[in-house]
Design goal:
The complex is a heterodimer of chains A (261) and B (153). Chain A contains 7 helices and 15 strands. By secondary structure, chain A is α/β, with parallel strands linked by helices. In chain A, a hairpin with a 2-residue loop joins strand 13 and strand 14. Classes of the chains: A alpha/beta (261), B alpha+beta (153).
Amino acid sequence: MTTWVPTPYQVVTRTVETHDSVTLALRPVAESLPRFLPGQFAMLYAHGVGEVPISVSGVPDDGTLVHTVRAVGAVSRALHDALPGTVIGVRGPFGTTWRLDGVEDLLVVAGGIGLAPLRPVLDHPSRRTVLVAGARTPQDLLYADELAKLSDVDVVLTVDRGDHDWHGRVGFVTEPLASIPLDPDRTTALLCGPEPMMRFCARTLLGRGVPAERIQVSLERNMQCGIGLCGHCQLGPLLVCRDGAVTGYPTAEPLLLAKEL
Amino acid sequence: MTTPMTGLDALPLLMNLSHTQRAAVAGVSRIETYEPGTRLFEEGGLADQCWVVLSGCVMIDTVVPPRGRIVVQSIGPGELVGWSWLVPPYRWHFGATIVSPTRAAVVDTGALRALADEDPALGYQLSLILINALLNRLQATRMRLLDLYRNPS
């Protein structure tokens, strides 16, 4: 039932993050879905418009679903514009999770909206955690106020283009990655962002001695059914909705280089 | 504030140099600390030193009328500031400003070139270090040219 039929959830808060992104907190109208884990996604249905896959950007203990939505097409625009009180259909939880068991030092690398699926792993980390996040401009940085308050995470923010009020880094995420202190024997890296960004970040980390087996990436394809039946999200041998989105780099690497599959 | 360089063993950038080679580079280097707002160099000025940032941040910029001084790149801990000393005419192509309290190893690049001329093995290792740092920056610049975070992507 939970996988095929959308469950009604109501928007309880809508937080504007950037000019094109909002974070929605959703509460079940009646029945609730199983608990989502960091890295998993839901199919969010905007009534009368359509359904899109959106990763969870928060997993509170009280069963609230938190999603950060960037307005890109018709469905995501409708979700982005949903005001508190709006009822949204939700299916899930779908997909794989960030694997954190046995992790010693955690390196989180995000680009653009890719920070959203990684946000839950930054909550109260129990290990040394470094976040390297990139955005187009300072105004495009997600969760800026929240990141500034993180006391137990080393945060490195960098933008493609700064402005006169920006005193942080200007450059691409691979640059701090090449020089930040890290112990390759202890580090596990989680990458999420545009695929070229993840490819280059992974190569930088491999060059620093981080084993491919300890690099995880989040893939994105045209997820529709969410349970590996329809085949729309096929990427080589993977059905990304079922075998991803979080995938080990040794599996993902050759697929990230394919022009079309 | 200036202090003599006593060793470069802790710098990851130079980890492929032998202890002797690092000592030679230390002999033409010193540690300096800078306050925010300090202008390190101006576009067109003589490029006779480079910096390895130990802590803090340096912005590389250029003037674009009428937008003023535009930051094109920032350099953080462990990274190298300054390439124009490598090739004639040894003039800075951009300017640089300190944006947060910064500590850096400052290298006399004329003396460094002389060391490399005298000891080709050191020169070769230095070339590899510089090429690696340049490659990282070139590739990062190409990534930025792709404008990967734009909407729609």
